[in-house]
Amino acid sequence: MALSLHIEQRTLAQSEQREVVVLGPSPAEKVTAPPSTDGAYKVLGVRNGLTLTVFDIVVGGDFVGRYQTEPCVAIDCLFCASGQGWILGSEGERAAVVPYRPGRAYVMAAPRGAHGYYDVPLGSRFKGIDIRVDMEFWGRLGAGDLLNTLTDGHPLHSASSEETWVGVLPVPPELLAHAKALFDSAMSDSGDLVLEARALDIIDMAISELREAQPATLAAPRDRRQLKQARDAMTSDLGRAWTIEALAREVGLSQKRLKSGFRNMYGTAVYAYLQEQRLMEAQRMLQTGEMSVTEIAYSVGYNSASHFSRLFVRRFGVQPSKVRCLVVQEAGSL
């Protein structure tokens, strides 16, 4: 059953643009959202080089696909979110994962454009704002020099490839208040001048956070290479009963350097990262309907189906058996 997805694209009243220049994924593309998605998605052309998107949607079907952006800096504040995205490297490989989490603000710098995939669970609510600044306007804001500091040693770094950098911004009450006010104004069409002013305020806050955060002392190249090996080893064999001791031995690091280096490089602890990848893979497998909940739990590294179910409910808010039953029922109705 198709639900109602309201899509709007327009320029602000004071904008010099004649039509919206979409710097990110366009909601007008059929692949952007499944037909059973419900909610509102607005793309607003603020001025040349600046686009604002606000969205509040509930995904009613598979929401998996590839995205591509124009060269830009993107600032995203998510109020409701789940799932994850992947940044693609120059050779088309999955270079880094970006978990989508509520209450977070992200900055993505892609001077040559970004390429990747997204995977959002069935029934997820996605609500937030997305501000896109093209590279010319970013330079005119006096922030061009910041791009040289955005490395994996930057304290706000979350994920990166050769061409794209993603960081997680602190979310003080002032930034959250501005983001929510901007969302409410855009959804209610309360005034185009207010929208532009609030968008510029958020950009200014993001620039300040990036500038004030001093790049951390970079780990030795050998450590960074081995930390990536540790990440790749876990994600390529999720069913293995990984321990810190075994993982450290496999990549040739001490346990202390592995734990501290992994947190600094990926913004999370080793076990937290492993659990997130296991649950995301389990969620994907459940949506195929090809294996039982117990079989999936074992395949991603959980010896107890009940323990797996508790973690799954905590992460996604639904029993894994219900996800599988819904998929099987839909398949049977075809």
UniProtKB/TrEMBL annotation:
<dbReference type="InterPro" id="IPR018060">
    <property type="entry name" value="HTH_AraC"/>
</dbReference>
<protein>
    <submittedName>
        <fullName>Transcriptional regulator, AraC family</fullName>
    </submittedName>
</protein>
<keyword id="KW-0805">Transcription regulation</keyword>
<feature type="domain" description="HTH araC/xylS-type">
    <location>
        <begin position="228"/>
        <end position="326"/>
    </location>
</feature>
<keyword id="KW-0804">Transcription</keyword>
<dbReference type="GO" id="GO:0003700">
    <property type="term" value="F:DNA-binding transcription factor activity"/>
</dbReference>
<dbReference type="InterPro" id="IPR020449">
    <property type="entry name" value="Tscrpt_reg_AraC-type_HTH"/>
</dbReference>
<keyword id="KW-0238">DNA-binding</keyword>
<dbReference type="InterPro" id="IPR009057">
    <property type="entry name" value="Homeodomain-like_sf"/>
</dbReference>
<dbReference type="InterPro" id="IPR053142">
    <property type="entry name" value="PchR_regulatory_protein"/>
</dbReference>
<dbReference type="Pfam" id="PF12833">
    <property type="entry name" value="HTH_18"/>
</dbReference>
<dbReference type="GO" id="GO:0043565">
    <property type="term" value="F:sequence-specific DNA binding"/>
</dbReference>
